[in-house]
Specification:
Blueprint: E1 7-14, H1 15-30, E2 34-42, H2 51-60, E3 65-70, H3 82-90, E4 96-102, H4 105-117, E5 123-125
Parallel strand pairs: 1-2, 1-4, 2-3, 4-5
């Protein structure tokens, strides 16, 4: 039987998506079955939503949470998540990898496509409770 205490949870969110995903992030960090959480947070600037909260979580869970901040390229406001997702998957040591996505349709599509390419099939989508402004 598969040991459920070895799940690596990958979360991909933009700033609007983080508003909906933040409670899920906290729950995953305290869940017994989740060993490690990688957060790919696509932000517009260095002054981002949930900055104090994420900094606190990083201090509380230094061995369970790694945050990758992705800013858009200057040319087309497009986030490059391929490289960071490849690094996360290539360095994974957990038995099971799951992903949750909450972002714009374009970013969700890009992340989902890359995760499927890397062999990750267990992907869920968090409904966004707030609209992009």
């Amino acid at each position: 039987m598969l040991d459920q205490a070895h799940i690596h949870q990958i979360i991909v969110a933009d700033e609007t998506g983080m508003a909906s995903l933040f409670p899920t992030l906290k729950h995953k960090l305290t869940a017994e079955e989740v060993e490690f959480v990688s957060l790919v947070y696509c932000i517009q600037s260095t002054n981002y939503h949930f900055q104090p909260e994420i900094e606190i979580l990083q201090k509380h869970f230094p061995h369970r949470l790694v945050v990758f901040f992705q800013q858009p390229t200057y040319s087309d406001k497009h986030y490059l998540v391929r490289e960071v997702l490849e690094a996360i998957i290539n360095s994974n040591t957990s038995v099971v990898v799951e992903a949750i996505l909450s972002a714009t349709p374009e970013l969700r599509f890009e992340a989902e496509t890359e995760l499927h390419f890397l062999g990750i099939q267990n992907i869920s989508f968090q409904e966004q409770y707030f609209l992009n402004q």
